[in-house]
Amino acid sequence: MKTALLLSGGMDSVSIAYWKMPNIAITIDYGQRPAPGEIRAASAVCSSLGIEHQILTVDIAALGSGDLSDQPPVSGAPASEWWPYRNQFLLTVAAMRCHAEGVNRMMIGALKSDGFHADGTRVFVDAMNELFALQEGELAVEAPAIGFDAVELVRTSKVPMDILAWSHSCHVAEFACGFCRGCRKHYDTMEAVNGSAY
Q1: Domain limits of the chain?
Q2: 9-40: pLDDT as tens digits
Q3: Residue 48 — left, alpha, or beta (φ > 0 → left; ψ -120 to 50 → alpha)?
């Protein structure tokens, strides 16, 4: 069984990389504002863990919305970083690479706390898994941390702090702004984890 992880470089996917040690990690530069920071973080983690890292560039910046892009949030966005159909697109692009690499199982970093986004739910992950099963390639999609929040994932994965420190969770810039939802989640999670032994 050959596995791949969609590795954004954020703390959730970094924790999964350490926990599940995929054969390949795939990072996608799709034109998001923090892409250079995400790529730098993902590359450092893969280098530290000895995971093959592949970076794909597929620029859809013109279709973006919210914090991750240079476009204002669209009407009805559930959060400031929402980008319509982003996860469906990223999974499809990663699946194309997985097929070429002979990957059987692709993991993504959805958590139970991502459920306010429709594409962060177990229902979405299961639907994408069923969709890929209808096509050639025999690729399964799973979210191994879907039952955890960020703190539970970090504790379960037992990722060392020197690895987790590479993660980049900012939604708006190459370097952490300290104020966006991604940075706040990062800081809150680190404080919760470091406040007690795991």
Answers
A1: 3-194
A2: 999 999 999 999 999 999 999 999 999 999 99
A3: alpha
Q: What is the pTM of this model?
A: 0.93
CA distance 76 to 54: 34
Question: Using one digit for the tens of pLDDT, what is the confidence trace for 73-82?
Answer: 888 888 888 8
Spatial neighbors of 13 by CB under 8 A, at least 6 apart, are 5, 6, 7, 42, 109
| Cα 33 to Cα 69: distance, rounded to the nearest angstrom | 6
Whether 188 and 44 have beta carbons less than 8 Å apart is answered as no
CA gap 72, 66 in Å, rounded: 5
Taking the C-alpha atoms of residue 19 and residue 116, their distance in angstroms, rounded to an integer, is 25
Neighbours of 34 (CB within 10 A): 26
- Cα–Cα dist 55/169, whole Å: 18
Three-state DSSP class for 155? helix
Calpha distance 39→82 (Å, rounded): 20
CATH 3.40.50.620 fits 3-194, yes or no: yes
CA distances from 192 to 82, 148, 153, 160 (A): 25, 14, 12, 15
What residue has token string 């596995």? 3
Report residue 25: phi and psi, to 5°.
-115, 135
